[in-house]
Amino acid sequence: MAKRLNIGADALEKLEYDSDMSGPGKENSLKMTPYCTNKFTVPRLTADAAATKIKDNLSLLASIESEQNCLPKHIAESQINLALSFFLGINRLNPKKSGVVPSVSPLYDASSGFSIFEVVHNVLLAFDCGYYSIDIKFNASREKFLHEFFCTTLGGQNLTPKEPWETFPEDETVEEHIPYSTMFVFDSGDLDAAAHTLASSFDDPVIPWRIRSVYVQEACYEDFVAKLKPKLRSYPPEILRDSAFTALFNEGMETLKKIKAKTIQPDSQHASGPVVPTICCEFSREQLDKPTGLSPIVVLKAVRTAKEAVTLAKNETGGMASIWTEKIALAYELVNSLNYNTFWINCIGKLNVSIPFTFRNYKNCVGSDFAPIEWFVKHSYIEGQDYATSDSPMVLDALKGASKVENSYHFEYFSVGSSDVIKSQSRKNKKWDALLDLVDLSDIYWRNVYVAATQWKRKTVVFPFGVTFAN
């Protein structure tokens, strides 16, 4: 596991960050700098008070994110607003929190590999869990945002100087799950809408549900490509200033040149320059992606049947799917066959505060009563524990499955874990007291939330409500 390393002030001074290079045409290399940690603290605020302060400073916060992480400002604003809506929604829907500050403070990762939606969402969830002092790991491209967010917007302070973060090879764990969506397009789907969704996804390269793999049924492959190509446009200029992004793109293009892979790019009248939205035909993700980042190049493959798509897609690790078909039975065939967390049918990125979505395996949960407890359990490094239950597990019906219709979308989730995983035994954990501080596990409601959050696999499915499906 990664560790923090205490070193002297002289060494701290050597960790110089690149200057802010936010002007037009200037490259930004802030993401290339080392990781550090700080302890930030904020005054105790109600959810509404914190949200008001963030909204009052939304434009400035979005501008900093745009400058430092090369993201279009309007996208940064929309991501921060989305995080706010979940923070407020959870506070209004989530009952029975003890309000006791847990004794163990988690280390939270807010580095540039995380979207600003995830950063703001998870910091606010920390407040929801009772943490008002948080250790945060970050790199230079997030330092300015974190200072503005904690110290100016919320009126807190930075309690510690930057402390270098180093990883010891002998303690390294499996690489952090990098989230992305895999798209499936069938001849029974709306090809024009699917092509528009894919083309639009290039505008935001860091949102967790970004599309990076596409499987298209052979029967509609040529029609889909014909609809897609004229919809492709240049990357927003802010993105092209990101040296980490362009480095991953150029490395991927070098790989494609070596194997002489066929690519799809925008027409010259819609985009120009060496870095443009690129789709590689009949290639695999693992040869493009790096441990440090997800290649912006999308891979596209033709498949004959849903079964073939499932077989090929089982190697995909992004954890999410966007399925385009008007046949609901076909959609659920993929839902049942793929080991993903989230499925969007004929849409993508539609969220609801009462239904759980997981974007980074074992790290993030957005929405529902799962969010605070799962955030606490995972970020405090408490492993999933067997919890003593009665002779027959009493998992609440609401945790076995739920559905909701809102804003013309139907949301549902269901457990796919067996009750066999819930054992009638418990094991001592050195951080058990911290969990007891957060929730009362003698309460059947929170006991079942804890069991579900730590031991049950779930799937979330979303599709437009009112759309006619033909079986």
Describe this structure in words.
With 471 residues, the protein is an alpha/beta fold. The protein folds into three domains: 3-171, no CATH class; 180-345, Aldehyde Dehydrogenase, Chain A, domain 2 (3-Layer(aba) Sandwich), CATH 3.40.309; 370-464, no CATH class. Helices cover 36% and strands 16% of the residues. The chain is built from 16 helices and 16 strands. The protein has helices spanning 9-14, 47-56, 58-69, 73-93, 116-128, 140-153, 191-200, 218-228, 237-240, 243-259, 306-313, 328-337, 370-379, 397-400, 432-438, 444-455; strands at 3-4, 36-41, 107-109, 133-138, 157-158, 163-166, 180-185, 211-217, 263-264, 279-281, 298-303, 319-324, 342-345, 401-406, 409-415, 458-464. The strands form two sheets. A ten-stranded mixed sheet has the order 9-10-11-8-7-12-13-16-15-14, sandwiched between helices. Strands 1, 2, 3, 4, 5 and 6 form a six-stranded mixed sheet that branches. Strand 3 (107-109), helix 5 and strand 4 (133-138) form a beta-alpha-beta unit. The N and C termini lie far apart (48 Å). GO terms for molecular function: oxidoreductase activity, acting on the aldehyde or oxo group of donors, NAD or NADP as acceptor.
Quick overview of this protein structure:
This protein is of the alpha/beta class. Helix content is about 35%, strand content about 15%.
Strand content: 15-25%
Give the overall form.
Answer: globular
Largest sheet: 10 strands, mixed
Q: Treating each run of at least 4 consecutive H or I residues as one helix, how many helices?
A: 16
* Ends distance: 48 Å
- How many strands appear in the DSSP assignment? 16
Structural domain tally: 3
- Largest sheet strand order: 9-10-11-8-7-12-13-16-15-14
Approximate helicity band: 25-40%
